[in-house]
Design goal:
- It is built from 8 helices and 20 strands.
- The longest helix is centred in the middle third of the chain and has 11 residues.
- A 6-stranded mixed β-sheet has the order 11-12-13-10-4-14. A 6-stranded antiparallel barrel has the order 15-18-17-16-19-20.
- The protein is globular, with a radius of gyration of 21 Å.
């Protein structure tokens, strides 16, 4: 049976379309996905992201453990966060995630909801040899995100913490809407904003406070539908669509989170080192649709009569007024400006490879 977040009744009262997602009943939209999307681009929106998974890592070997498990460098300063991939020995991606460094021997891993059980099993299987403790706090941690150019103005009403002092991918702990919370300047939209982590019983009070504080800015609740179009506009990959076990971070243009210049012995290091040196056979690229229609996940890509790739994500980009896609293409076809065609129900739709992100006017600091 699907779980309900502590904000489920709030979503129902707001008229949300609720569907099963990653084991939870989640709001997909409250009305118009386009309107929710544009509210985040132009002002501010609030998201219930309680379905995400949270693992707390503590102990003397916590940094060494994460340096083994993840491709990015765990040795960031306290109060910083970092994005990383976690790979199988063959270089395929277990998950992509954010890690917050809470203290010298404490981290919070935030993993994708759809991968929670798989990730937990993977993390548990690599504990041997490390003086470390990992606790799955997913079922007691709620997450509310406030995103958009007016997000800080909303949040300033709810905390005495100097939010200007929190940079992008930084965080602190303190009171938010009168409850204890982790306050992070992170997000998945390309806009400025904060992600607020709290205990389950505090979620309703925080949500109500956020909606009240944001009323003067026209805040709207935002579902997973607009969360998907927002991330696609700025070219952020989605696990299960754009990255998975069959893709490597080098292929997915995530080489910047694979720290090969360090000495850290992370899982799949040798495989990824070799792939980077030899160059992968395919690359993830961004494409703008220059014809009518838009290809979706799984649509084949052609150069003339030759199939050269596949679309992994595709949608209308509301802030741009045109369709955009992410997809993998063979090496040699990935250059910007190259023109391809997507085949949808026997018809060819022209596309052009362009620089990612598609949308570049976001307020992200």
């Amino acid at each position: 049976m699907d779980k309900r977040t502590p904000l489920y009744e709030k979503h129902i009262a707001l008229g949300a379309t609720v569907q099963s997602f990653a084991g939870y009943l989640m709001p997909i939209k409250y009305g118009s996905i386009q309107k929710e999307h544009m509210a985040v681009r132009e002002s501010v929106g609030a998201f219930d992201l309680t379905h995400m998974g949270e693992f707390r890592v503590t102990g003397p070997d916590s940094t060494a453990f994460l340096d083994k498990l993840l491709t990015n460098d765990a040795g960031v300063d306290n109060g910083k966060a970092y994005y990383s991939t976690m790979c199988y020995p063959d270089g395929g991606i277990v998950d992509d995630l954010i890690v917050y460094r809470i203290g010298d021997q404490e981290y919070l891993m935030v993993v994708n909801a759809a991968n929670l059980d798989k990730d937990w099993a993977w993390v548990q299987s690599h504990l041997q040899g490390f003086d470390v403790k990992v606790i799955n706090e997913s079922d007691e941690t709620a997450l509310v995100a406030i995103q958009g150019p007016r997000a800080q103005e909303v949040c300033l009403k709810l905390t005495d913490i100097d939010l200007n002092a929190i940079g992008y991918y930084e965080h602190t702990t303190g009171k938010f809407a009168n409850v204890d919370a982790l306050i992070a300047r992170t997000g998945y939209t390309g806009e400025d904003g904060f992600e607020i982590y709290m205990k389950y019983p505090d979620a309703e009070a925080v949500w109500d406070s956020v909606m009240e504080a944001g009323e003067e800015f026209g805040i709207v609740p935002v579902g997973l539908g607009a969360r998907d179009t927002l991330r696609l506009e700025v070219g952020y990959p989605l696990y299960g669509n754009d990255i998975d076990h069959s893709t490597t971070p080098i292929e997915a243009k995530l080489g910047w989170v694979v720290k090969l210049k360090t000495e850290k012995p992370f899982i799949a290091r040798e495989v990824l080192e070799q792939q980077k040196a030899e160059k992968p056979g395919r690359y993830l690229v961004g494409m703008k649709v220059t014809g009518k229609g838009f290809p979706r996940h799984g649509t084949p890509l052609f150069s003339g009569d030759r199939k050269v790739g596949i679309v992994t994500s595709g949608s209308i980009a509301p802030a741009l007024g045109q369709a955009v896609c992410l997809g993998y293409v063979e090496r040699g076809f990935q250059k910007r400006g190259n023109e391809l065609e997507a085949e949808v129900r026997g018809k060819r739709i022209p596309l052009k490879i362009v620089k990612i992100p598609f949308y570049t006017e976001g307020s992200r600091k």
